[in-house]
Every structure is written in structure tokens, then in C-alpha cells.
Specification:
With about 350 residues, the chain is mainly beta. About 10% of the residues lie in helices and about 40% in strands. A hairpin with a 6-residue loop joins β3 and β4 (about 85).
Length: about 350
């Protein structure tokens, strides 16, 4: 099932930093939201339509146990274009001191062997033709992502999130539990987000909900509308003809944040040799383009305590591999549109796409 979610007001998604009144007056917002936020919103929709089953929530008989998020995307609604977007792969960068008319153009880094002695643990590095800089909060369209994964181009146009997501500061003050009036030393500020011609798209299975309705999203339980739409919008893969068994190298692109027990490195990769095995496929990590980790947590309303805090590898991170045993077709079947996150995989963490490597 594929649904489009449109916030009806500003929205706010907290990061993992503690926010205690009287100690810190600014609440940091993360955007896009953690997959767990979307997962919880869908579960809440189900239980709001099945109140009699609410007592089974978070038990072995929970009717939402089979819910699995298969993809989280953005939809550009400007002029009814309905263009699908995903987080920008981090091996796409911009030239330094770029001219204004080229500020939304990015280039693919090249994979080169590292021949000098260095503290870098990998045998290869990613290199640009000249000075480059990373892009914060960039998006790439589904059509261009196919070109990127197929290595049919090295130059791409992007959409910047800050052109569609407006920050609106909000000042509030906590209330006394006894008098229900403003309490001293409890003033706070948060950066609310307002989406402009942009919607969330969520692809999931294992749960049936009404085809349209309302849901609560993020902090303060802000209202959003949702509706089922055609799954034909989800088209980010290249065709079967590109699954050449003779391809020796491949990349994994994270479309959502992933949680690994070894930090940035999946546990099925040895930290010393950088060789790994995933089921019957063996490979070696050549290099990676990894963003700054995100602190992701939450609050358990039932247990009335914070959830475990995780350091998540951010969406857009890319891993480059050389196949030792197996072939590209096997790698594609094992990883493409699958979750490689070692925690909360069902919630949509660590959804990957497989691509070729340009050298």
C-alpha cells in the first residue's frame, strides 16, 4: 500500500538530545523525521479504527506486528508535477565556489585506489576533479536516481529541502500541574517546520487501514491527512537488462537511516579486513561516503520512560563493495529495496538500493 501524507499545520520532530525545562530552552528538530515516527503514525491510524484491539498493542497478539515499511519518499506537488524524491546520495557533491545558476547541480565522485600510506582504513577513496563540497538536505528525483544507480550519468540536478521546508520558530511556556498557569523557568523555543508543495510518501505492507483519513504526526500530535495513491509512482529501479553477472563491484545507497551495532559499519563486515559475508555473497568494502550520525530515540508512553538511544547512519550514505564470491545479480536480489538495519528494520530503517560503480 502506498499513501501520501500531507500535514495540515506546522510539524515538529525532536532529535535525541535531552530537553529539560529550566535547563535548555531550545528544542532541536530533525527533518526528515525518523522512520519510527511514520511507523507509529500508521499503527495509531489502525488502532483508532479498531479501538477494541488497543489492549493487544505491544503484545504477541498485536494485530500490527506484521506491519513493514518498504519505503519513505517525498512527493513534489508543485504545479501537480507529482515527482518522487529521495535523499541525495552522499557521493554526489558540488564544486566549490559554484555560480548561482549552477547551485542545484551535483557531480558523482570517482572511485580511485589509495596508493599513499594513510590512516584511512579502506583501499580506495572517492575523488572529485577539483575542490568539492557536500550538499546538506539535498533530494534527488526517482528518475535521476535510476540514472545514478545505473551509472548512465555523472551530473545531476537536485532539489533543496530548504526551498520546500520552512522553519517557523515557536515560543511556549510550560504550565504548573497544580495551578494550570504559566510556570516559572519553563519557557522554551522550538523550530516548527511547514511543508510547501511537498508531501510524504510511505510504502508499506502487512496492515490494512482505510484508504484515506487523518493521522497524528510528530510532536504535539499535529494533524495530517493521508490518502492511498497509485503504486506506479514508485519506480526507482533500473531494468533487468542491467543485472549483468560480470559486474564485479556494486554500491549500496541508504534511502533511510540505518542502525548498525558497529557504528557506521554493518556487523557482517569485519572491522579489520573489511571483508564481509551476507548469506551466500562474499565481498570487500572498498570505501564509503558516510554522513554525520544521528541520535535517534523517543519516549515510550506505555512504559513512561525514554526508549533506547541509537546512533544511526544517516540516509544518503553510500558503501562501495567488490564481489569476492557471488555476482551482481545475487547482490541485487539480496539488498535492493531491503532493510539492512540491525535494529528496527520493520519500521523502515536501513532501506537500501543497489547500484553500479563508476571508476
Amino acid at each position: 500500500m502506498l499513501i501520501k501524507i500531507d500535514p495540515l499545520d506546522t510539524i515538529f520532530f525532536r532529535d535525541g538530545k535531552p530537553f529539560s525545562m529550566g535547563e535548555d530552552s531550545w528544542g532541536n528538530c530533525i527533518f526528515p523525521p525518523s522512520p519510527s515516527v511514520i511507523y507509529g503514525a500508521i499503527r495509531t491510524v489502525y488502532f483508532s479504527n479498531h479501538i477494541d484491539l488497543l489492549e493487544k498493542a505491544n503484545t504477541e497478539e498485536d494485530p500490527t506486528n506484521n506491519l513493514v515499511i518498504r519505503g519513505i519518499y517525498f512527493l513534489d506537488n508543485l504545479e501537480n508535477k507529482n515527482t518522487l524524491y529521495l535523499p541525495l546520495p552522499l557521493d554526489l557533491v558540488q564544486k566549490k565556489d559554484v555560480e548561482a545558476e549552477m547551485e542545484n547541480e551535483v557531480n558523482l565522485l570517482s572511485l580511485v585506489e589509495l596508493k599513499l600510506k594513510s590512516s584511512c582504513p579502506t583501499s580506495h577513496v572517492l575523488k572529485g576533479d577539483q575542490g568539492v563540497q557536500a550538499i546538506d538536505n539535498g533530494l534527488i528525483s526517482g528518475e535521476l536516481l535510476k540514472e545514478y544507480l545505473s551509472c548512465n550519468s555523472k551530473n545531476f540536478s537536485i532539489l533543496r529541502l530548504n526551498s520546500r521546508v520552512i522553519t517557523e520558530p515557536k515560543i511556549g511556556i510550560g504550565l504548573s500541574g497544580e495551578t494550570h498557569t504559566a510556570d516559572e523557568s519553563k519557557i522554551y523555543r522550538v523550530g516548527m517546520k511547514r511543508l510547501k508543495n511537498l508531501s510524504f510518501l510511505v510504502e508499506f505492507e502487512g496492515l490494512e487501514i482505510p484508504e484515506k483519513g487523518l493521522l497524528k504526526l510528530g510532536g504535539e500530535g499535529k494533524a495530517a491527512s493521508y490518502e492511498k495513491i497509485s503504486e506506479q509512482l514508485i519506480n526507482c529501479n533500473y531494468s533487468e537488462k542491467n543485472l549483468n553477472k560480470d559486474i564485479e563491484k556494486f554500491k549500496l545507497y541508504l534511502s533511510t537511516p540505518a542502525i548498525f551495532h558497529q557504528g557506521w559499519l554493518p556487523s557482517w563486515i569485519d572491522m579489520n579486513s573489511l571483508e564481509g559475508k551476507y548469506k551466500n555473497l562474499k565481498f570487500k568494502l572498498l570505501t564509503a561516503s558516510i554522513g554525520k550520525y544521528q541520535n535517534l530515540g523517543g519516549f515510550d508512553l506505555k512504559q513512561k520512560k525514554p526508549k533506547p538511544m541509537w546512533r544511526a547512519t544517516p540516509a544518503g550514505s553510500v558503501y562501495y563493495f567488490k564481489i569476492i564470491e557471488g555476482d551482481f545479480k545475487k547482490a541485487f536480489s539480496l539488498f535492493n529495496k531491503q532493510s539492512i538495519s540491525e535494529e528496527n528494520a520493520k519500521q523502515g530503517f536501513g532501506i537500501t538500493f543497489v547500484g553500479k560503480i563508476n571508476e
